[in-house]
Amino acid sequence: MKNIEELLKNNKIKLDKINVPDELENRLMGALEKQSLKNKYNNKLMMKVASILIVFILVGYNFDTLAYYSKKIIGFDQIMSESLKKLNENGKGQIINKSFTFSNGIIVTLDGIMVDDNQLLLFYTEKKADKSINENTIVSSMMSINGFMGNLQVSSGEGQLSDDENEIKWIMKFESPNFYQKKLKWTFEVNNDGKIESGEISFTLDRNKAMGHTLKNKLNETVKLEDREIKFDSILASSTTTVIKGTIQNFLDLAFDQLSGERIRPEQVEFELIANGEELQWQGSGMSTNFKGIKFHKEFEPLPEELKNLQLKIKGFIADYDVDEKVKINKKDDNVTFQVEGQNIEIEKIYESKDETFITITTEEKVVLSRVYLIVDGKKIELQDTDSDEEQKNQLGIITHTRTLRFLGTGENLQLSIERIRYNKSINTIIDIPIK
């Protein structure tokens, strides 16, 4: 045992005296550093792989949700109709997401569009971060969409202001683009402290997103109204709206009335669109007069998907007629009734106050003396205003309105001079529309 201990001691002394060559030391140190770097590299690589796997798992798990929202026009649910909401849910809109910033800080963002054969719907956001939006800063209705060989004009729109009054969401209706129009430019204006400033956003129409139409028919139906005719020309139903178009007067009728002095100014053709026995909701209407005559259109919600039958229920025709009626009246007479164009007008009372003459009349609903004068002792006096409009319904269900006409001046000999009267002519006709 003693010999072994002595042997180990002597070998230890020898080992302590051995010097490691410099070359070997460098090799060993290099090998250690290389192994350390390799471990660090492997750790970083593993972290990257792990991160990619995590992102892949998260994206894969939420892919349907991300794809769902990437196809929707976001933030307009409160001003969308139910039919538009459904189209948006199904990804029928085209996402644009382009912005323009005015010098006064207003940011206009074109969020998206919807297009079919009836119209182009433009969804945009107007935002101003530094102060509330007001009538002097919002984008004006003077806007259009410019395309190849023609512009699309705006017809109507609806917007909603946010609670903090710093943002407005708008849906604007434009004419439907022609088949050859693809590259479009939306131009708009803002009132910047009394100075008009213009902006524009260009976009390309994706025809794959256009929805076409669901029903398109010529109607060629005529409804006779005494000595006049109202023609229902066509129906065009699409995914966003259903439009009925018609004609009240052609060019010859318009010219004849102008020459005869019996001109009419149509205001509304009252009718309903009935689908599967249910009245469709009205969305808007319009009327225009040009060299072709007087045209009208009325818009309703889209037709139901399972359409079984379709009808037009014509109810009436409201217009302003040129007349020339002079009616003698007496300040002492009350409850006197006379007729103009077959419409009853009852004078309830006539009285004077402070050099003014007041005449209280009662007419049926939708009957208005749209141009009336008072002739006092041979002098023609203009109507100043109409006060105290009261509505009543009698036992027969007829609604009447009572108004007071005010004229400056008094006298003994009085005449009402009626030059225009507006009233409704009832029609009550049903037209069946073919759906195939």
The geometry reads as globular
For the record, the CATH architecture of the largest domain stands as Sandwich
Low-pLDDT segments = 54-59, 61-66
Number of domains: 3
CATH topology of the largest domain: Immunoglobulin-like
The major beta sheet can be summarized as: 10 strands, antiparallel
Please give the radius of gyration in angstroms: 39 Å
Enumerate the strands of the largest sheet in spatial order, edge to edge or round the barrel: 13-12-16-23-20-21-22-19-18-17
Q: What is the H-and-E element order?
A: HHHEEEEEEEEEEEHEEEEEEEEEEEE
Proportion in helices: 10-25%
Distance between the termini: 117 Å
Q: Briefly note the structural class of the backbone.
A: alpha+beta
Average pLDDT figure: 84
- The CATH class name of the largest domain reads Mainly Beta
Organism: Clostridium grantii DSM 8605
Domain DUF4179: 46-125
Transmembrane segments: 45-63
Keywords: Membrane, Transmembrane, Transmembrane helix
Report on the structure:
- This protein starts with a helix and ends with a strand.
- The protein folds into 3 domains: 78-209, Conserved domain protein (Immunoglobulin-like, Sandwich), CATH 2.60.40; 215-321 and 428-432, Conserved domain protein (Immunoglobulin-like); 324-420.
- The chain has 4 helices and 23 strands.
- It is α+β, with helices and mostly antiparallel strands and 436 residues long.
- The model is unreliable at 54-59 and 61-66 (pLDDT under 50).
- Strands 13-12-16-23-20-21-22-19-18-17 form a 10-stranded antiparallel beta sheet, with no helix packed on it.
- Keywords: Membrane, Transmembrane, Transmembrane helix.
- This is DUF4179 domain-containing protein.
- Pfam families: DUF4179 (PF13786).
